[in-house]
């Protein structure tokens, strides 16, 4: 079965090192809580708000040990008024036996406000 696993995080500044660090933390947490191995991943789509432009978050994913062959792509989010700024969103397409209700989506830093329902579920 192919499932989508979501997550998001934020950075405090548009600095390449911060973007890479926070992306790596997010992706590793998503993989850990859902027991995802690199060979289970079909692809990773990463979007950033338009205020993030100093580095490619996909570089962080490809630099994780064992993830260098995972297809990864970056794009920008729509520019919507009052949207959460400095946000990095991740969607992993994975082969898994988990049902949709058992997938644990991960929201970190200021991004917890995006899906408080899922954050609460993950902490139960």
Automatic annotation (TrEMBL):
Prephenate binds at residues 6, 89, 107. The keyword Membrane does not apply. Its EC number is 5.4.99.5. Pfam families: CM_1. It is an enzyme of class 5 (isomerase). InterPro entries: Chorismate_mutase_AroH, RutC-like_sf. Coiled coil: none annotated. Signal peptide: none annotated. It comes from Ureibacillus chungkukjangi. The keyword Amino-acid biosynthesis applies. PANTHER family: CHORISMATE MUTASE (PTHR21164), CHORISMATE MUTASE AROH (PTHR21164:SF0). GO terms for biological process: amino acid biosynthetic process; aromatic amino acid family biosynthetic process; chorismate metabolic process. This is chorismate mutase. It catalyses: chorismate = prephenate. Keywords: Amino-acid biosynthesis, Aromatic amino acid biosynthesis, Isomerase. GO terms for molecular function: chorismate mutase activity.
